[in-house]
Amino acid sequence: MKKIFFKNARNQKICGILYEPDTESDEIIIIIHGFSSTKDSGAKYIAEKLAKRKINSIRIDLDDRGKSEPRFGETTISSYVKTVNSTISYVKRLGYKDISLLGTSLGGLIAMATALKYRDIKKLILRAPVADYYELLLKRFNKNILTKFKKQGFYYYIRPDGEKLRVLYNFIEDSKKYSMYKKVKNIKCPVLILHGTKDQIVNYRTSQKLVKGFEDAQLILIKNADHGLSINGDLSQGLKIIADCVEK
Known about the structure:
Blueprint: E1 2-7, E2 13-19, E3 27-32, H1 42-52, E4 57-60, H2 77-93, E5 98-104, H3 106-117, E6 124-127, H4 133-140, H5 143-152, E7 154-158, E8 164-168, H6 170-175, H7 180-183, E9 191-196, H8 204-210, E10 217-222, H9 236-247
Parallel strand pairs: 3-4, 3-5, 5-6, 6-9, 9-10
Antiparallel strand pairs: 1-2, 2-4, 7-8
């Protein structure tokens, strides 16, 4: 395990943690965290589980919530996709040829959007994915509140721990391009979707709708699991399913 840095398309520094337990393999999985999170949240446990199975991975910070340079609130889904593309270019320079993506929550949407642009993805694993961010906002706020956000040019995102983050309205406008329900028909690689039935942030029924759009996808619902696929703090069931999928 080692900390690495590389540049994105805007010449900004991106930080990642690279695990290479199998130096003979040309396969690697890129782990993409959710909105306002970092590479050191759930992504860390996933990478550690994969490393125990001798599976190479890299977990990255999409924004300055971790050690990467792009300023939180100034980025968009489009810029996140470019950062993942930069990560793909980086691991290819390291010699990796078979590249899979794993995304959690909004990271799942970013993984799907990346797979639409980069057609050589080997596998796609989505943990409680956001299928349409704008749709999610409409369920959280009414249109009058979104109009208010547009006039003031920003809104505040409240993290589960109570931290308040300022996000430019441009993020919302950009997100309208990324409703995935119909777009995913153009993703040809195998897809695994995991979702908890007790998810209070992204309802599992969105994944039931999303899975129907893929050419080759499987949905596994984890009974009583929350948004992080935890059951009373236990992540083991979801982690095992992910490791088994990657190992196949």
